[in-house]
Amino acid sequence: MSTYTNFTVETDADGIALVTWDMPGKSMNVFTLEVMAEIEAILAATVADEAVKGVVFTSGKSSFSGGADLTMIKSMFSMLAEEKAKDPQAAVQKLFDAAGQMSQLFRRIETNGKPWVSAINGTCMGGAFELSLACHGRVAANSKAVKIALPEVKVGIFPGAGGTQRVPRLANAQDALQMMTTGSSLTAQRAKAMGLVHQVVEPGELIGTAKQMIKDGLKPVAPWDEKGFKVPGGGVWTPAAAQLFPAAPAILRRETAGNYPGALAILKCVYEGLQLPFDTALKVEQRYFTQILQTTEAFSMIRSLFVSMQELGKGARRPAGVPKTEIKKVGVVGAGFMGASIAYVTAAAGIPVVLIDRDQAAADKGKAHSEKLVADQVGKGRMTKEEGEQLLALVTPTPDYSTLADVDLVVEAVFEDRAVKKAVIEQVEAVISDTTIFASNTSTLPITGLAENSKRPEQFIGVHFFSPVEKMMLTEVILGEQTGDKALAMALDFVAKIKKTPIVVNDTRGFFVNRCVFRYINEAYDMLIEGVPPAMIENAAKMAGMPVGPLSLNDEVAVDLSQKIMKASIADLGPNAVKPEHMDLIDKMVDVLDRRGRKNGQGFYDYPAKPAKKSLWPGLKDLYPQKPASEVDVATLKQRLLVTIALEAARTMEERIVTDPREADVGSILGFGFAPYTGGTLSYIDGMGVKTFVELCERLAEAYGDHFRPTPLLVEMAANGETFYGRFDPYGAVERAA
Ligand code: NAD
């Protein structure tokens, strides 16, 4: 048998070919054109070889496979754009053919006449699970490492290689829809309970069991290719289905406000497909897949949420020429709310960390946070007791600064107070080595100003975490005027090690994320003052695709923190820095009404004791004369909330605070959940076209104020027909720099 680049094939004495997928130089197997061609060749060879009785398909890596290489899909988009310019109809035909390739390959496996068994040893996502579904048998290892999912919806597409047809022919329709429209992961046990895998066995028995299935006479025919096959639950013409299918689009609309065409296409594929013979159903899926691939949502989501996120995670902004640092020890100074969590994520990445506070008790309190998190993880079975102990052993709480002598990096997370930070910077610099990098987690103080307290400003940088640190995937890395390449490289190496995605921004008040967030909240203040019913503001935000309404978000951030920041802006920048009506509203909320947000149980919302849910504070309606709901246009509210944020992002590009559009996009989605279907703030503008965006801004400025005026850069780009990704081409920049 021939040799392959990505696979090994070993046929045993029983005639069972063990196909092991192990791509060279990659940490995870993914589908590429070469991989598909090799699977095709393996299929042909095993069919032709009479000695082969069946095939076991597995992975040589710790995971099974992450699914399709989405960069392949991204290049399909470029192909489509080029071809469309020449001949639109032929371009769509080409896309249709490409969209069906994987599906047809899997169908050929399913109908090849010899039994195939997929042996799932670890994470099995997207196309890899669709391939497994086309095998006649599926065995999964009884291991935490096994996570099975069809997560395509999360990047704007859907399982288009047979997933929408095979899952609801194995599992009941409700579970199938739930799995595919949310993209959530299944454990091996759950997948078995749903009927998606046949057996779950101990990891060491995986291949043996898979082979045994073939030896036991596994029929090389899919259930739906058998005469008399019945869909589980009876298909779409049953009383249960009559309850499910009419409700499903409404539920989806409630969850996603109709913003995700890929999710709706799943419902259509399942409903239509279950009424058709299997091969016709696959064709229907291919047609919807072709349609979805042409949506702006799919294009933008794949670019930002997959390609750019991966590139930034792999250090796209890391300065070339600085060798990678193996971070051996980290110091965290300030063991409060943020410092305690930063210490935890550092230890969770296997790095020893000293956690310093003013006295031993305060430092111990910081470590107690790690102890609680570890106990929770162990309790939930996500961590063994030993793993938990190992993690905790890495955190050393102490008030003794001399323990910082051998750290590679210090993260400062003390009070947000210039004088306190100055004292800490001096105390730390008195003990650290010449090469140690100092990173401040400040959220509001410009890094350049803080670095004035440092003797080595080139080794001083901002590393801004978001709360809750354990969950938030983003970290903003802020360059002070004098920050050097070594500091940047070290900061990025650290962020990568703790598995967060970094964006690198230049110094400014609020950096990138908070500048955008405050625009969002400020627009809600304007709406409140205009008399828009508060519930309409919050609902419009959700309908626009934001995960949290602006008033709710302000409560989380703390209303008195907003007051503090607004006052600081006025003190530093003058009285025009904040609208007087906004200051009045917030002064009233904090000083008169003591409504400080979630933390004191009352803000824009009321927070009754659990299990009761929070609800908008009824008194909010009495602060300003209310407009009747019928006079408020929800579509305009949605636009105002998204446009004000996107405009701020555009300003940060114009001011060169953010220099790479990928960072504005990824930062806005990971930092504050900017409507993910748009692909982020700048993709939102590019997606509708800069010219359309500028016209929209002008209209909003006429009606709601000058803060909507498009900036000179936007006007120029509109006139030239440019896009952000064209004008600030991240790849062009890399090539130029190289
Ligand atoms: P916090 O009050 O919870 O913690 C500050 C800790 O610093 C306290 O434990 C305090 O005892 C300690 N401390 C004060 N002076 C010290 C000194 N001289 N030496 C050692 N320890 C000292 O505050 P926090 O919310 O964790 O914020 C810390 C920093 O992180 C601030 O700069 C803040 O702006 C920033 N930040 C906060 C958030 C957030 O959501 N809270 C988010 C991002 C960044």
Provide the descriptors you would attach to this structure in a database record.
globular, Rossmann fold, 31 helices, 6-stranded mixed beta sheet, 2-enoyl-CoA Hydratase, Chain A, domain 1, disordered C terminus, 738 residues, binds nicotinamide-adenine-dinucleotide, alpha/beta, 8-stranded mixed beta sheet, N-(1-d-carboxylethyl)-l-norvaline Dehydrogenase, domain 2
Walk me through the structure:
InterPro entries: 3-OHacyl-CoA_DH_NAD-bd, 3HC_DH_C, 6-PGluconate_DH-like_C_sf, ClpP/crotonase-like_dom_sf, Enoyl-CoA_hydra/iso, FA_oxidation_alpha_subunit, NAD(P)-bd_dom_sf. It catalyses: a (3S)-3-hydroxyacyl-CoA + NAD(+) = a 3-oxoacyl-CoA + NADH + H(+). In the central section; belongs to the 3-hydroxyacyl-CoA dehydrogenase family. Keywords: Fatty acid metabolism, Lipid degradation, Lipid metabolism, Lyase, Multifunctional enzyme, NAD, Oxidoreductase. The protein is α/β, with parallel strands linked by helices. It folds into three domains: 7-294, 2-enoyl-CoA Hydratase, Chain A, domain 1, CATH 3.90.226; 330-509, Rossmann fold (3-Layer(aba) Sandwich); 514-727, N-(1-d-carboxylethyl)-l-norvaline Dehydrogenase, domain 2, CATH 1.10.1040.50. Helices cover 51% and strands 10% of the residues. It has 31 helices and 18 strands. β2, α1 and β3 form a beta-alpha-beta unit. α5 (163-170) runs antiparallel to α6 (173-182) and α10 (261-273) packs antiparallel against α11. The site of nicotinamide-adenine-dinucleotide (NAD) has 24 residues, from α13, α16 and β14.
